[in-house]
Design goal:
binds adenosine-5'-diphosphate, binds magnesium ion, about 65% helix, 4-stranded antiparallel sheet, about 600 residues, alpha/beta
């Protein structure tokens, strides 16, 4: 447990002075608290020493003034000191949590395919929210309690020993039991807490998946099944929590029992000492206060143990992620040119996804000249998207398998590579912002005219006319939900506006009808003249306009050439052309959102 918590030290270091100030203040507070019984004892003993009842005024004036003022001052000072101490540790806790969240988020930004295969989004959200708040609680509350526990014990036992050593020694024997009990419950709580946190991860995973797929679930009338499945997960979580609560309840109940034993000891032996004249009544009363002071934090020992255990597990779960290196290292050679011109060379490019049994790409050789337009075709799963991802190092190719302008892709700064080679991914994703902000996502300060013309090139013009707010229409998570085709064109506009030396379009016309596609293609030809463009498509009508066509199958190039060349060859492409030409007479399926309304 301590090793797990010790890992947090680098995050605490910047705030160490606050934490030290807080802890010191807590110590001072204990000393102040310990003064109260001293003054109390003084008052009681002075009262007991009186021979006859004096007048109230005389009493306050003479004998009780010091104890009363002493108690008032001690209590008020303690109040101030404790307020300061709490503020200091909470401030530390808040900053540590902030830094942890920021760091975790940063780490997530540099992860790739392998990471997102291994960890689910729900799990990451639990770590970023629940686990970090457990650590925050540890600092805000745990340190306070431990500090109180230690200082209260030291200070109260110190004072008791000073007042009556023999009575204090009698109070010590039960203490080892506290220790063993604490160890036992630490162990038990640890097991239970781990289960709780894992249960929470599974739970949020399931909610996350369910909500993302809610339309599919409703369309297939699987709500009841989903609810049942959720009940299972929910129950596992509740059971784990139940076990944890049972242990901590048990711990909470044991400590007051110990307090009772101590009180009986004081009453018996202490009372005898008073009768024998070995101890004053005031000291006798003060003892009860000190025992209370010593045992009060022990009462919450179970809670503390729980807090530490859970924070330790949370820390392990966080550092499991924090220790990850960026999946795609950014170590530019410094030798590469400042701008990419757009010649691409693939040399025997292989790629296999983690845990896959076959290669997604299996020896691709291809040279794309600067300014060339290439269409990649092939059946689903043949490796088209994989190829494009390798070009921008969203996946990592072998060192010299991908050359850009003659330099290995990994020699370029990652940022430059991905800026100069603009990839429009296959699944269109829009952020919860305005349509315009989505299009100019990479550079929010572009003039509206630039956004407008990119939107027009992607044939979004008519769509925009239908939105009263035009480019300011909110889309994505909290706005107007666009149709598949509209989303595709919005992401296409996002790619076009960048005017990058190389543009990669991954199946960006699959949800638009052929007429729209034709309009976009002619805009594309105009905008991309002299610049390298690689697009993935299923349509011969798209492919025929490009300089060369790559036919992929099972990760290999099976045909390569211009439209005319491939038709003459009479291979897979020619067959595809024939099928699509004959299929053309059947009515085109249009994106419903594009039909006149
Ligand atoms: P395409 O874009 O041509 O449809 P992909 O490049 O997406 O094909 O996929 C090529 C192969 O790699 C397929 O067999 C697919 O199942 C596999 N694949 C794609 N993405 C992953 C992934 N993240 N993890 C494991 N295998 C993948
Ligand atoms: Mg694909």
């Amino acid at each position: 447990m301590w090793r797990s918590l010790f890992r947090l030290r680098t995050f605490v270091r910047p705030y160490w002075h606050w934490l030290t100030a807080g802890i010191t203040a807590f110590f001072v507070a204990r000393i102040l608290e310990a003064q109260v019984p001293i003054f109390l004892a003084m008052g009681i003993d002075r009262l007991a020493a009186l021979e006859e009842a004096p007048s109230l005024d005389a009493l306050i004036a003479a004998d009780l003034r010091t104890p009363i003022i002493g108690i008032v001052v001690a209590v008020l000072a303690r109040y101030g000191v404790v307020t300061f101490a709490r503020f200091m540790v909470r401030r530390t806790a808040l900053h540590v949590a902030f830094d942890l969240r920021q760091r975790l988020f940063g780490i997530l930004q540099s992860q790739g395919a392998r990471f997102f295969n291994d960890y689910s989004i729900g799990d990451m959200m639990t770590r970023a929210v629940a686990d970090i708040s457990l650590i925050q609680r540890l600092f805000a509350l745990g340190t306070v309690l431990v500090v109180i526990l230690i200082f209260a014990t030291i200070v109260s036992f110190g004072y008791m020993f000073y007042l009556a050593p023999s009575l204090t020694l009698l109070l010590i024997p039960p203490l080892p039991f506290v220790y063993f009990y604490a160890r036992w419950s630490t162990h038990k709580t640890g097991i239970a807490s781990q289960a709780v946190q894992e249960g929470l991860s599974t739970l949020s995973d399931q909610v996350q998946e369910n909500l993302s797929g809610i339309r599919t679930i409703q369309a297939m009338v699987q709500e009841d099944n989903e609810i049942r499945r959720f009940a299972g997960t929910n129950d596992t979580y509740a059971q784990a929590f139940y076990r944890q609560e049972r242990i901590s309840s048990l711990t909470a109940a044991v400590m007051p029992t110990l307090a009772g034993i101590s009180q009986i000891t004081i009453l018996g032996y202490g009372g005898w000492m008073v009768l024998e004249g070995q101890m004053t009544t005031g000291t006798f009363v003060a003892f009860f206060f000190y025992v209370r002071m010593a045992l009060q934090p022990v009462r919450v020992a179970g809670f503390i143990v729980n807090l530490f255990q859970r924070a330790a597990i949370a820390s392990d779960r966080l550092f499991e992620v924090m220790h990850l290196e960026p999946e795609i290292p950014d170590t530019p050679s410094g030798q590469t040119p400042a701008t990419i011109r757009g010649a691409i060379e693939l040399n025997n490019l292989h790629f296999r996804y983690p845990k896959a049994s076959t290669n997604a790409l299996d020896g691709i050789d291809l040279t794309v000249k600067e300014g060339e337009a290439i269409t990649i075709m092939g059946p689903v799963g043949c490796g088209k998207s994989t190829l494009l991802r390798l070009l921008v190092r969203l996946l990592e190719p072998e060192p010299n398998a991908v050359l850009i302008d003659g330099f290995a892709a990994r020699d370029y700064p990652l940022k430059q590579l991905r800026l100069d080679i603009a990839l429009v991914p296959q699944d269109p994703f829009l952020f919860g912002q305005s349509l315009g902000a989505n299009i100019t996502y990479d550079q929010p300060d572009r003039p509206p005219s630039a956004i407008r013309s990119a939107a027009d090139a992607a044939d979004l013009g008519r769509t925009l006319e239908r939105f009263p707010e035009g480019l300011d229409t909110p889309v994505g998570e909290r706005g107007v939900t666009l149709s598949g085709g509209q989303k595709q064109r919005a992401t296409l506009a996002r790619g076009l506006i960048r005017n990058a030396p190389v543009l990669l379009l991954d199946d960006c016309f699959s949800s638009v009808d052929t007429e729209t596609e034709d309009r976009i293609l002619s805009a594309l030809r105009r905008l991309r003249r002299g610049k390298t463009t690689i697009l993935v498509s299923h349509r011969v009508s798209t492919a025929r306009t490009s300089d060369r066509i790559v036919m992929l199958d099972q990760g290999r190039i099976v045909e390569l050439g211009s439209h005319d060349e491939l038709l003459r060859r009479g291979g897979a492409y020619a067959e595809l052309e024939r099928l699509q030409r004959e299929g053309d007479s059947s009515p085109q399926v249009k994106d419903p959102a594009e039909l006149p309304t």
